[in-house]
User: Fold DNA-binding response regulator from Chromatium okenii.
Amino acid sequence: MADDAPRRRPVTVADQERAARCARGRVVLIDDDAEICFIYAVLIELEGYACETFASATAFLTTLREKQPRFPGPCCVLCDVSMPDIDGLELQRQLALYRDAPLIFISGSSGIDEAITGFRAGAVDFLIKPVDADVLLAAVAKALALSTERQLARERRTVVIARMALLTEREREVIQRVAQGQTNAEIGAALGIVERTVKFHRQNAMEKLAVESVIELVRLVDEMQL
Assistant:
């Protein structure tokens, strides 16, 4: 779940099965009610996902800090709101850095205030116990799809940052001005270079950034907030 957690490679048949489940989705289930935890875990595993259960948020945070190797794949957290020690809302605050794992709240006693607080902080869903199986699995599927989107976006950003590092200072200046809507002639006048040289730097930058059009270049510069 953690962004910097090392990736684990399967070495046994059991590992391969676990890796396949994690590739489909890993659900971290936190509830101090052992019976509910067991029922939800069985349901989640029957759907083909990997499921890790914890009796408290504290236990989960402890394993998270250990940064143990994990199989890659999307991940979400399914957490009861009302728990001793650290409740669901406090856990949400402590998980703020781990954007890849969307959070779903489940509760049997919390009111509208907790739901509003959770949603404002980014919770994907707020389910009321007893939760229908189809409703639970739909929420999990939605959260895992969001996790996949976030992981892909983070990986893409990492690639783009590496490509940006290949740009020369002049190439960076040129594409920044292209993104601002300046023409080649205007860029050349501002930088004291001829128009042909502007085109040369722009083309080099586009090749390094793996974009094929000026429109793509502008979008990328805006996305990276250069």
